[in-house]
Amino acid sequence: VDPGTDGPLVVVGGDAAGMSAAAEARRCDPRRPVVVLERSEHVSYAACGFPYWLGGLVDERDDLVAHDAAYFRERRGIDVRLGHEVAAVDPEARRVELAGGGRVPYGVLVLATGARPALPDVPGTDLPGVHALRDMSSAIALGAALDRLEGGGSALLVGCGPIGLEMAENLCRRGLRIHLIEAADQLAPALHPDVAAPVAHALREGCATSRVDVDLSALRPAPAGRVEAVVDGVPEVHDLVLLATGIVPNAGIGAAAGCRTGPRGALAVDRACRTSVPGILAAGDCATAWHRILERDVWQPLATTANRQGRVAGRTACGREDLFPGILGSWVSEAFGVTFGVTGLDEPAAAEAGFRPTAVARTGRDRSGYMPGATEVCVRLVYDAPTGRLLGGQTAGGRDSANRLRALAVALTARLTVGELAGVDAAYAPPVSALRDPLELAAAAAVGDAP
Amino acid sequence: VDPGTDGPLVVVGGDAAGMSAAAEARRCDPRRPVVVLERSEHVSYAACGFPYWLGGLVDERDDLVAHDAAYFRERRGIDVRLGHEVAAVDPEARRVELAGGGRVPYGVLVLATGARPALPDVPGTDLPGVHALRDMSSAIALGAALDRLEGGGSALLVGCGPIGLEMAENLCRRGLRIHLIEAADQLAPALHPDVAAPVAHALREGCATSRVDVDLSALRPAPAGRVEAVVDGVPEVHDLVLLATGIVPNAGIGAAAGCRTGPRGALAVDRACRTSVPGILAAGDCATAWHRILERDVWQPLATTANRQGRVAGRTACGREDLFPGILGSWVSEAFGVTFGVTGLDEPAAAEAGFRPTAVARTGRDRSGYMPGATEVCVRLVYDAPTGRLLGGQTAGGRDSANRLRALAVALTARLTVGELAGVDAAYAPPVSALRDPLELAAAAAVGDAP
Asked: pTM of this prediction?
């Protein structure tokens, strides 16, 4: 990127990465014009909050909107253009072609085109009663369908990753009977079975049933707007089907413009968020991200990464030197009262990266056992056997377990060994922690200093 | 310590440090006899839990007892002798003299004699209505006094550190009117005023009144077993007075035996918990501890340190090489719904240690702002201006803030800079964290990457 290039900064896509890039560029260089082209009518919303709005925990859809287009226009001086879909990029002429006709010239372009649902390869995914959650429009459509059901009916949720589980809990809140199905052999397949066990247990206590290792082969229209799903060869009829089977990057426009692609077809970017094409940056779910432990680019779309890469792209666009610090693949989710999450590598990924991983798991209480409300937290640590270097961690338990993931993420960033982690002098008080926290116990067990 | 020395391992004191040492020694060397001499009738109890038992949150006093003497005798093969007070140690003859007569020979001695209340230097601290919380006997006495008040009356709490505040909350639970007084100029004087502010606010919303910068000059008997306290020269009468004015190490026996003493008169120990006298180890509240950031010995008695030093002493007693990893001075407390705590250094301590400290504070929400129950967390970071090295952190907020302290403790252990801390890829989900956590915001602000 040549920051001296004439022409405005143009951002394609107005959610987490795009608006972060636009706002950061305004901060760094208040004189450079910034244009955001957003194909929908919505910018800067918290897609991660959709389940809670759909479940009724969050009252108003607008509560999920950090700032609307008017705010960005009037208060931040960003030229946000809604309903502007970009059809193509001409990197030689440095301009974008709009789907509705017209062109917008750019000095620097930031592609923040996000991702779209990866639909299962079965007929019927486009039926009216079949939903997939991604952007605000999809959330509004699902919300309208739920309103029509008036707190009853049955929903088939396809995919038991974090989003599927969050939606299961929240559709339960709406009074639906939930039937979860998963092609893999367990719920939350990204978790080790030991860590997934409390999640599965909580689900069984909730209002949802689940089946794993099952095959969805077709979706068909049924009477009264319902949907017939063929699961392991047997048809069953539901009021609503929600597909939570992952996402794929929206890399088409960038790739067509000549940007090199990386893992999973995402736009390959360096740590300054530059693509391979001069003048074009990319950030967020459409782009790759550098992994701190693997020390290579991966595609693992998350809101945290989108937000952070967006800021980096905004700075790069202004000629500021700033490198994306890299990801650890950290995510967390909560369903049916259990918080579960991951940071760093699991054993297969660690082995593939050339480590010699081994693991230890311990379950302990999140506060002193005699305190009311004490709940169990399972901590599983993956580390390199020859060196003791911590490579990853997973937790499941009460709400606090998320912040144990934060401590593990710090340890991974610092390349601590499990022995060093075991020696950390962490604060203790009966209402908020155990004298020896499960995290400490697991690390200590790895070095033979705990039962 | 010569692990080959004949004679049993004798431990003086049967709480956190002592029983940890005894149990660890049994694990390391099942053949060596282990004797624990405890002057009271109680071993291995959670003194940190007293406020919650006294407040009625914990039903039974026995809930605070991890294991009783019978368990240690029968299940762990440890010769626990209750009601055995040690009067002196003869390091030449390697034996202890009991206050009640008799001697016990030792091969290795572990002094785990704890600490005692540091009473204010005013007349009347020994009146029947005046309490100080330290060991199980003192908790039982205070519990009996509360029972006699039958859920009414007024209590004067002297000292507004963590214990004073925890007791204030719990005596409120018992229906008492609480009057807190503090000689320093704020509540929780160890906290920076910015971090102490939410604590003071919560206290005002609670059932307690507080006065700072006040002077207690005398305690006098009043009719009906009540106590008259002279505060800033004015007498006031309370049903009960609780002194929470700190503690001092019980180092007398060790010092008399020739053990060198260190800061605050505590028994000076090396990182293997050896005192200066051959054959004598010390651990817990009676001993010093190595500070990881200051890189020198300090006296900062905490249950976590007692537990950990006890294990190190048990291993040293068995001839195992093991070094205490050192403390960060981490503590946490909760009162009136606010959790507050510290890890590492504040600015005065950092400056005294030769750093050039500066600080940054940010307040943010503990989860996404649109989620029900989102509460504010204040994070204050102290770092070395020339290098950016993180030197300490303080937090106040909801219950989760304790686990932000854990992440900071990991960062301090790893000697991260604030810039590195700002770049940590921590997990995010709306119910359990904000997209940019207050901890990340504070670290990012320190390097100019946050508002």
From this structure: 0.96
